Every structure is written in structure tokens, then in C-alpha cells.
Amino acid sequence: MKASAIAHPNIALVKYWGKRDARLNLPATDSLSLTLAPLHTHTTVTWRRGGDAFVLNGVEQRPRDVEKVARFLDLVRMLNPELSGAEIVSHNNFPTAAGLASSASAFAALALAATSAAGVTLSPRELSVLARRGSGSAARSIFGGFVRMNAGGEDEEGNDAYAEAIAESNHWDLRVLFALTTTGAKAIPSTRGMNETMRTSPYFSAWCEQVPRAMHDAEKAIAARDFELLAETAEASALQMHASAIAARPGVVYWNGATVELIHAVRTLRTQGLAAFFTIDAGPHVKVFTTAGDAAKVEEALRAQPGVIDVLAAAPGPGAHLTEEHLSPSSQVL
Ligand code: PMV
Prior knowledge:
By secondary structure, this protein is α+β, with helices and mostly antiparallel strands. About 35% of the residues lie in helices and about 25% in strands.
């Protein structure tokens, strides 16, 4: 009744921004991402008698946070009615809830560890559907490399809203540099930002209309390893997502000054001949995609930017997988 899993975060090249169904957590549009290592969430689930308990990074979580995880575990309890409570011990080797996609790796690892500990075997597609219920982007972290998320729309229960791998992690040796521009948790959680955009932004429908073209161009760019086309497509997707959010009432603004400076700095690097483009999620950090060959120079330039606190380096990584290494509430993991 115990299992452990590791899952990596992913960064979207074509963003997911907006839900067409809040209860089932169904996305309004398709999206496309790259799964990234060595950043990861490592989670151990033990099913046992009693209530649910959740320890994250060595800290017993507050009832509100346990509740979010317990609601997700209810979906697993529906698959095996003999299950009672669970102890979840989780560790992130990168900052949590800071706009660094920790909910993606968290729910992907939890979906795999919780079902496996319960003796329930799901296909990768079924796991993706389950992980989506915890966090939309988690559906993509079930898979490694380049991943496409299908919004679905035919199936009432949302079983056609799942992710699938479109190219393995070794297809293209890209690097992603996370330029961190603040410490601490993000201001507006992504679900709230999405809901406010959907409810009040006059640009939300325009945002949705652009996604099919972005998906087409991103898939073409990845298949052909066309960095320029991917750069243009991914920057447009990120800026269009943020433009729709900024146009909400009140505007959902995730950027700080350093975010804007980085947008310009990355574009300058590109005009100087370096492979570099940016993307930005529900937080002020800037993720810079580059090639293995240019990564050192791009990292040096990012570190020299005013307002950049640190830079984390990542490369294409694998999908969620089980591990024999179990965590206990008192485990010291570095
Ligand atoms: O998975 P969520 O609900 O945290 O939403 C993720 C939203 C973005 O990170 C901004 C975009 C994306 O596609 O990952």
C-alpha cells in the first residue's frame, strides 16, 4: 500500500490559459510543452486507516492544503472503494508555488504514486486524465519530452482531455534557463488568474482563436527543429496569454520590472546571433529556451541582468515514473 513516484515540471510553449469546465478542470484550448529535468517532485503515498496527512518539504501542511490533496485522492478512492486515508510525503527540489510549474510535477507524481500504492493500474493516457483533475498542466507531466495536450470536447466526463508525447526528450537538445526575479510564492494563483481573464477580459476569445495556429506552428517547428519558428510561436503565445490576462478587470499582471527588462534582453541576444527566446507563466520569472551550444553564454547574460536573483538550468526530461526510493515524514532530502 506504499509507492513512490518522481515527476518533472513542464514549461508550455503554447500556453494553457482558461477552463471550459471548472469541476472537471477541462482546458478551453490545446497546449504544448516540454518536460524538464533535473527539477522534480518526489512523492511517496501510503494508504492506511485514518485521515489524510500531507508533508511537503518536511513541513506538515495546513488543513486547507491537505483538503486540496484529499479531494484529488477521492478520485483514486473511487477506483478502489477499500481505500481509506493516505499519508503523502512530497519533496520538490525547486521552489514551490512560485510560478515554476510545481503543481504540474506535484499532481503528476501524486497521480502515479497514489494509484500504484492502491494497486490500480492506469494507462499513461488515463493517468494524464487523472492528473489533469489536480492541475491542468499536470496532465502534460505524465509524459517526457515534447507533449501535446488535447482540450477534447466530445466526452462529457472529459476523458478526451489528455496529453500525449509528440517527440521524445532526445529529439532536440534544447536547454531552458529559469531566470528568477523574485523569491516567495506567486501573487495570483493560475486558476484565479484564468477565471478572472475568462470572466472579464474582452481579449479572452481572441486568445482562444489564436491557439490552433500556434499549435500548428509549434508542432511544425519541433518536427523540423526550427528554432526561429519555435521562438516566434512561443513568444507570441506567451505574450498573447498575458495580454488577455492584463486586459481583465482588474488586470491580472504577473510581471515585475525585471520581467520586462528580460523580454528585451532576450530579444537583443537573439539579434546578436544567440539562440534564445522567452516564455512567461503565472509569475514574474522568465524561462529562456536556448540550445546546448549557446546555453553557457545565454546563462552568463541572464545572470548579468539587473533584477535576476538566480538562474536554474534544465534540459528535456522523462515522464513520470515509479521509484523504489520511499520518503518518510522525517526524511532529509536535499
Ligand atoms: O496547471 P495550472 O492550473 O497551474 O495552469 C498552468 C498555466 C500556465 O502555467 C500559465 C500555462 C501552462 O500551460 O502551463
